[in-house]
Design goal:
The chain is an alpha+beta fold. It has 4 helices and 12 strands; from the N terminus they run αββαββββαββαββββ. The chain is elongated, with a radius of gyration of 21 Å.
């Protein structure tokens, strides 16, 4: 079980962090900015590398063909030093989509432009540091060393683990979610017992625990915070992993 964190936001861009402000102002990333409606905005870091995800839509009008919008991004990003990297189109009965990637010296910008064939065009933008392209493959790291990142201070770490992944995501309301994944060695029951004892010592209160199809999920609360600990087999690393989600 991997939760998808999606916050619907209908405010404009006044509260963006410095990375988002820099990228949007300098590269004019929003087509028809005055008419755009923000659906989703997340900023954060993965293994110490920053990223930004922005999802918005505009109501269709004359000249709002997805190819025209794609060409708009070419004219905006080219002079800023971004070069076209990948381009793909998809057509279905419900929608037409362009998927494109632009490479810069420091950042990579991925764009998904979708015409829903009704009344609007939806644009999804991802801005990430070039290092992100390498760090997002951290699950395949074969060494015994931790990947760069962080642990959550008051959530104990099982001793026989290797940190594969850590992410921190913040929305426009400054709500932050942290997620850490560890590769583990040992018996799942021993891991469960470890967290039952150590979470209580760290003043977390267990509110739920269940097992399903090889997954063990433990849910905790601490004042106004929530945490979930998920233990399961991950086919990518061919090992059992511990996933911790805290908000």
């Amino acid at each position: 079980m991997i939760r998808i964190i999606a916050i619907l936001i209908f405010f404009f861009l006044s509260a963006l962090n410095l990375l988002a402000e820099k990228q949007i102002k300098e590269t004019s990333l929003i087509y028809k900015k005055s008419q755009a409606i923000i659906l989703n905005l997340n900023r954060g870091e993965m293994n110490n590398t920053e990223f930004l995800n922005l999802n918005y839509y505009i109501k269709k009008a004359r000249g709002d063909d997805i190819k025209d919008i794609y060409n708009y991004y070419i004219t905006q990003l080219g002079p800023k030093g971004y070069r076209k990297d990948k381009y793909q189109t998809k057509k279905t009965k419900e929608s037409d989509t362009i998927l494109a990637t632009f490479m810069g010296d420091e950042y990579v910008i991925s764009i998904n432009i979708t015409d829903d064939k009704r009344s609007r065009v939806v644009v999804i933008l991802s801005i990430m540091n070039n290092e992100f392209l390498f760090k997002k493959n951290a699950l395949m790291n074969k060494s015994n060393e931790d990947n760069p990142g962080f642990d959550i201070p008051d959530i104990p770490r099982y001793q026989k683990t290797k940190r594969l992944l850590s992410t921190r995501t913040t929305d426009m309301n400054e709500r932050t979610v942290r997620q850490v994944m560890y590769q583990m060695e040992g018996n799942k029951k021993a891991v469960v017992r470890f967290y039952e004892i150590e979470m209580a010592l760290n003043k977390w209160k267990k509110i739920n625990q269940f097992e399903f199809s090889g997954y063990i999920t433990m849910s905790y609360v601490k004042k106004n915070r929530k945490a979930e600990i998920l233990i399961h087999y991950n086919p990518e690393v061919k090992k059992d992993v511990i996933m911790i989600l805290e908000e």
